[in-house]
Amino acid sequence: MNPPKRLRTTEDEAETPTGGQEEEDRAVDVSIVMPMYNASCWLDECLQAILNQDYTGTVELSVFDDASTDDSRTVVEGWRQRLEARGISVVISGHTSAQPRGVGYAKNKAVSQSCGQYLCFQDADDVMFPQRVALQYEASVLHPNSLIGCKVQRVPEGSTERYARWINMISQDQLLTQVYTSHGPTVVMPTWFCSRNWYLKVGPFNEGGKGVPEDLIFFYQSLRQGGGVVRVDQCLLVYRYHEKATTHSVTEETIWKLRVDFLQERVLSQWESFTIWNAGKQGRKLYRSLNPTNQKKVKAFCDVDENKIQKGFYTYEDSKQRPKPKVPVLHYKDASAPFIICVKLDMTGGVLEENLNSLQLKEGTDYYHFN
Known about the structure:
There is one protein chain. By secondary structure, the protein is an alpha/beta fold. It has 2 domains: 231 residues, Spore Coat Polysaccharide Biosynthesis Protein SpsA, Chain A (Alpha-Beta Complex), CATH 3.90.550.10; 103 residues, Rossmann fold (3-Layer(aba) Sandwich), CATH 3.40.50. Helices cover 34% and strands 23% of the residues. Strands 11-12-10-9-13-14 form a 6-stranded mixed β-sheet. Strands 3-2-1-4-7 form a 5-stranded mixed β-sheet, with helices on both faces. α2 runs parallel beside α3. It is elongated, with a radius of gyration of 23 Å.
């Protein structure tokens, strides 16, 4: 690696690095982008893992502290000498306002003060495996207009078991077809790696602060720009679950609206009619969330519950139309594609999957999962 350069540390907000010869001298292959807020208890493990990377190109660590009230800044400064001795240049900045400004803001600041051609996003509470930067860098060079993810090890073991299984087990094709499920991005944000040029084309991250799913907003915008989604099929990150994680501040309704809007934009706008698979609570909620044009495209609900089927119709009581819309409820074998599946994945003991397979349907053409 190139000899380390000691870079400035500023107590004020990080600004875009100055241009000219100085910026050219700082150019590196990969910037590890790390927003930070009260992460002191995890930082030693996180930074040791960065030190242990087996990537042989040039690396920079760019940290932006979002008004931590613990000793996070001191801990990171304590690692500067070891990181620079390994050839990893370090940029640390932040702000000391009374309140944090949110993870989207901190990510943008950490990116703007960095100079790598490629960006490796790292949460301060997670831990990289030694091969992460090298393998994701290789994938990103091959797919420069894509978000690159990887498989993860979820800790504590057993936490969010279904979610962790979904992260690691969906196929490459499903990385694109399952973008409307409730889980969020099909490659999870703590595993993202991309070219700087792609970040600049898609971004920046939404800076709305607490409660804003800046990762899902960016992910959808990347897809709108024609971006790809790629997963390195090795476990390259320890993905930590804890009660203080920022994801817990995002409400289900916020995510729901984003997903419905994206589904209408990308799928339903292309279909003349469709069936909602689930005549229960989730299926009816989807129907009510659709715009009037797409509500009219719903030709039926389908289900396996005989009680729902025997009722014959779902009546949209809150509709302002007169007469109120009445949508038929059918057995799934009597319904026709395309379908929006509003049944939770991995929750029926394989029954849903067997039923879908029995109809010989193709995901991404004949149906999409929404739940």
